[in-house]
Amino acid sequence: MREVTRRELLGWGLTGSAAAVLAGCATPGTTSVNAQPVVPAAGEKVTLTYWAWLKDLQKVADVWNAQHPEIQVEVAWIPGGNSGGYQKMYSALAAGGGPDLAQVEMRTVPEFMLVNGLVDLERYGVSEHAGKFDETLWNQVSFAGGVYGIPQDSGPVGMYYRPDLYEQVGADVPATWAQWAEVAPAFREAGMYIDSFPLDDTSVFTAHAMQAGAAWLRSAEDGWVIDMASDVTLDVARFFDQAIDDDLVTTSANPYSPGWFAAAADDQIASLVSASWGDALLAGVSGAEGKWRVAPAPRWDHGFGSSFIGGSTSAVLANSKHPKEAMEFAVWLNTDPEGIDAMIKYSGIGWSPARDYIGASREEPSEFFGGQRYNTEVFQPATQQQNPDWQWWPITQQTFNILGDGFRRKATGGTLVDAVVAAEARTIEVFRQKGLTIRKAER
User: Fold this and answer.
1) Rama region for 413: left / alpha / beta (φ>0; ψ in -120 to 50; rest)
2) Which superkingdom, per the lineage (predicted)?
3) Which SS3 state, helix, strand or coil, does residue 11 take?
4) Per residue in 47-69, pLDDT tens?
5) Hey, which residues does 77 pair with through a beta bridge?
6) How far is residue 211's CA from residue 442's CA, in Å, rounded to a whole number?
7) Who contacts 291 (Cβ-Cβ below 8 Å, separation ≥6)?
8) Mind listing the domains of the chain with CATH numbers?
9) pLDDT of residue 271
């Protein structure tokens, strides 16, 4: 992915009032500027605060604390970003306070940038650590010649499947989406589904389009260029429109919902294209141990071998008095083997962004997946097969909400294709309402 230049960042066109609206509340952002760092005196202890929704992250921080008495980290749990965590951060920024570090999703980084909510870590030499991280994920936090967060986790996509159910219907595990569509009817004839398709979680459809090679928005010197309703994306929408119309997938049981768990336990779900972090969730299926395996995601006849769902950063917020120390902790947390192993053990972290270490436990064979070394066989290669041109934009969540509203109309006669076209038009309107410059790509 090409980095956004500083001129392009300014070209996004936010006025002060638009920045406040973008943040989703009335007051933040325009008054929030990077605080003046405080250089601790020799021997003086620095205490950093970290807001995150990861469970038991303090136990991970304590590993660092034991080795760094001069820099101590205190973790405070907050609700997930869109469940109240971001509102809490924006309010704290507007009041001139907040933590030193916070968990911010990759897709939300541009929103925080446009309210001056994040520290550009390039000021503190973060680029010397770039080689420690997966390049695709590093690109997701690199804008305008700066770096606005430390990658924390991601979710490369593969396919979880039941070998016994595939054998029952005499089907091979599909390597392509065309093969997936060919074998899916056999599962319906046997009273099960090959997969589910969520109509109210558009991150799944987004991952499919991303894998096919779509890039919905990109920055340009005069603002943003939108290509959401491209032929690539509409082809993916048509594919799943047909799959839903032919009853090849269930739309009534979203992945990992109570209904889905019940269906999976009752041998009604044969496979699931999902992110690496789904491995822990599958353990919630009653009687599932030893029955599931993992394969690469089916491929389109163009695009990439995988994509990703989710992903967070350890971001240094604008009012931090100790941004350099916060950066040092964030780099350790997300690249040091001790930090990664502790986050897997205590916090159930998603896929590590470290270039050369996935976690000791993830290199071992898995009893749950029948002794398969699925992380090294499937997900590690998947991280090298992702769309490097994908870029998040300043109103990502709002676009997802708009698209979700359209997808839900599928149940009453709408189509995914129409939803995508309408979401592109509405996204353009929202950009312009917020003072952002945007134009359609030439097709």
Assistant:
1) left
2) Bacteria
3) helix
4) 999 999 999 999 999 999 999 99
5) 52
6) 21
7) 162, 163, 164, 370
8) 6-154+310-382 (3.40.190.10), 155-307+390-440 (3.40.190.10)
9) 98
